[in-house]
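During the no-cost extension, the postdoctoral fellow (Dr. R.K.) reprocessed legacy sequence entries with the updated structure-token encoder. One reprocessed record is reproduced below for audit purposes.
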Amino acid sequence: MMKRGSYFYIATPFFIPLHAAPQDNSRWSARGLKNLLIECGFDESSIRSSQWGNRGAAQRNLEREWPPKHIPETDDLTNDPDFPITSWALAQKI
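Re-encoded structure tokens follow.
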């Protein structure tokens, strides 16, 4: 149903640490999303997938009222690959 050249984007929550054995594909990890898109007919070379997470960002969202009144500019939002919060994938219809 997609026109050639168009893009498909998906993002999912992923709030459980990885436990690859040998891969973690049953929950929506970056690799699991990539596998899903391949099964849906996207060419593997057109798919980019990754995960992002940050323990401090997760703790702030769980411990304080939402939305936060003030987020310090000094917050470190560096990706922590051992603490994924979201997985995403982008694929182009070739």
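The first strand starts at residue 7 and ends at 13. The helical segments are 30-39, 55-63. The remaining legacy entries will be reprocessed before the final report is submitted.
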